[in-house]
Amino acid sequence: MNMMTNPMPVVIGASAGGMAALKELVAQFPADFPAPVFIVNHMSPHTTGEALVRVLNESSLLTCVHAHDNQTFENGHIYLAPSDQHMLIGKGKILITKGARENRSRPAIDPLFRSAAVAYGNRVIGIILTGYLDDGTSGMMAIKRCGGVCIAQDPEDASYPDMPQSVITNVGADYCMPIAGMGALLSDLLRRELPESGPVPEDIVIEAKIAHRVLSDLPSVEALGDQVPYNCPDCGGVLWKIAEGDMLRYRCHTGHAFTSSALITQQTVKIEETLWVALRMFEERQNLLVTMSKNESKQSPSSISQRANDSQVHIDRIRAMLKATDTDFHSEEVG
């Protein structure tokens, strides 16, 4: 199949429940599908994604491959973001980068969607499928602002409705439907005659460049929003607040980015890590004090014993906090 000089890319984001959803979707694409397809499916950095590539190749008439940097893309092919790397697209080529995580994920959906909006404007078709939290909402907003098409899986059709529901609530989907109807819709959309795309808003261009690591400086981030008294849970840097409609996002100058939900979740993770370290240190302190009370005669044993009892009070408090933190974390965990 020949690469079009001005393709109409289809960009897809999925998370929890993504394999089954993507399998159902790509099975609807005909062999002469007239567009390149780019997929980000959240995955652990320790997985290869080969299982998903195999499933999509078995389910679709199209060829699915892991994308690689500087790769020229073609119509009728599916390109899957590799593990632990962002996939972006430029004019006719794929860009793979180790840029900072967005919404706790790498690969993340937002960077792909923004890059597509910058490169292809109103020719982009974005699809958001099943998943926890709200990665993909900001990227879909960029597609919408550039004149592209926004498709969200019907939340009642999704195994995990958070991601499509967030897009519907915060962006306003052009089409909200079960996966079963998306193949026919795409065939219709890809036959459209489109006017010339307008200029891309500067803030979308800046964020797309940050994801590609072209920009990572204070003036660039300051142009996007206002500094807030919170620190980035990933690197400790200062955060800037970005308002997009009713949705708030946060970004540090090194490139980490979070929606409010993702920021709360990552803060919870870091709190849990800190509490485990504190618990270990208090238990070590208590064990040392108990040993001292048995073996040292120069200090008052009762004083040392009291300090050991005080440590136990702190240990009990930390354990109680860890139980509460564990409950919060599992209720907010990203798929």
Automatic annotation (TrEMBL):
Residues 292-311 are annotated as: Disordered. This is protein-glutamate methylesterase. Its EC number is 3.1.1.61. Gene3D superfamilies: Methylesterase CheB, C-terminal domain. It comes from Marinobacter zhanjiangensis. Keywords: Chemotaxis, Hydrolase. Signal peptide: none annotated. InterPro entries: CheB_C, Chemotax_prot-Glu_Me-esterase, Sig_transdc_resp-reg_Me-estase. The keyword Hydrolase applies. Coiled coil: none annotated.
